Amino acid sequence: MSGSSRSDCICNEKEPQGEGSSWSYPEWKEGADNLSLFQKHGYFIVRNLISPEEIEGAKGAISSIVQKWFQQLKSSDATEEKDWEEIANRLPDLQGRDASEDDELSIRRLFRMALHDEFFAQFCRHPKIVSMVTELLGPDVKLLQSMSLLKPPGSGQKKWHQDNAYFRLTPARVLGVWISLDPTDCANGCMHMLPCSHGSGVYPHSAPASNHIDYSLVTIPRPNDVVPVIMSPGDALVFHGETAHYTPPNVTGTRRRSIQFHYASSHCKPTKCPRQEGETHTDPTLPTDPEKPHYFDCDPQCNEPEYWYYRKAEVLVAGREFGGDFI
Ligand SMILES: O=C(O)CCC(=O)C(=O)O
């Protein structure tokens, strides 16, 4: 794809593969037993889930959210802290730069677009996606979270993690639908999966003291076990909420844009902090690191407001609401 160095990637992929990727993945097929495929591997690929027009629509909607956000930021006393939860997360290392250089290149993520943008409010109910997620999760499904991951040139890795370390839903009937808007490979930070890592619960995660909810796996997978998922625009990666994944830094000169929707069964419940229940699941044999005190399963601070942020559903997309669920 780019011919650039990709030495930052932890998998064993030696050469950029681009269009001619030799990797094969479990793949969704109309009318096949996709539920068994998902249950076995913890993820699958859907080729051409969305059309070229829908890809352009999504890119346009992202640009318009970014422009609106910067206008608001420039014309009011809004601060990044204030807006972070609802709109965007700027690249920390680009924060000092003048946003007018290129607003979109300074944005790493957009959050909760389905709540404040009409295009994404419709898009999360895309009939093909709803049909697929109800096949996997059952008839009652909520959109838990919408995100755009813009991965600009120079942006860093997203460390290994399981999404249910953030959501903490039980049962773990939760999945991500990650749709590429640009070609993705190891050089620009494609998704990397640890196949079959779902089904045994959430493994121990830790977080840096500077960002106590930026959870990542304590034990990093071995490179030989890791699968880089090389995708074309419009392809989707559907993965279980407990399937461990990571993206390496983007070492190319161009963005790697994607949109990601997390869906969960309306029957899921948020788990409490195990400490509140008098339980501790953290492996007692792990060394305690004063720089990383916030083990997922044994958080001394609890930090409940942040945890709840990741468990607040955005939209009911199919079936019924349930009282006392994860909203
Ligand atoms: O797209 C990325 O770079 C990472 C996405 C991801 O793993 C996440 O948001 O949980």
What does this protein look like?
With 327 residues, this protein is an alpha+beta fold. It has one domain (23-49, 108-318): Jelly Rolls (Sandwich). 21% of the residues lie in helices and 20% in strands. It contains 8 helices and 16 strands. The protein has helices spanning 34-41, 52-75, 80-84, 113-116, 118-123, 127-137, 164-167, 304-309; strands spanning 43-46, 88-90, 107-111, 141-149, 158-161, 169-170, 174-180, 192-193, 205-206, 216-217, 227-228, 236-240, 245-247, 258-265, 269-270, 315-318. The strands form 4 sheets. Strands 1, 2, 3, 4, 7, 12, 14 and 16 form an 8-stranded antiparallel sheet that branches. The protein is globular, with a radius of gyration of 19 Å. It starts with 33 loop residues before the first helix and ends in a 9-residue tail after the last strand. It binds 2-oxoglutaric acid. This is Fe2OG dioxygenase domain-containing protein. InterPro entries: Phytyl_CoA_dOase-like. It comes from Amphimedon queenslandica (Sponge). Residues 1-25, 270-293 are annotated as: Disordered. One of its GO terms (molecular function) is oxidoreductase activity.
Summarize the structure.
The chain is 21% helix and 20% strand.
Q: How are the elements arranged and paired?
A:
Elements: H1 34-41, E1 43-46, H2 52-75, H3 80-84, E2 88-90, E3 107-111, H4 113-116, H5 118-123, H6 127-137, E4 141-149, E5 158-161, H7 164-167, E6 169-170, E7 174-180, E8 192-193, E9 205-206, E10 216-217, E11 227-228, E12 236-240, E13 245-247, E14 258-265, E15 269-270, H8 304-309, E16 315-318
Antiparallel strand pairs: 1-12, 2-3, 3-4, 4-14, 4-16, 5-13, 6-15, 7-12, 7-14, 8-11, 8-13, 9-10
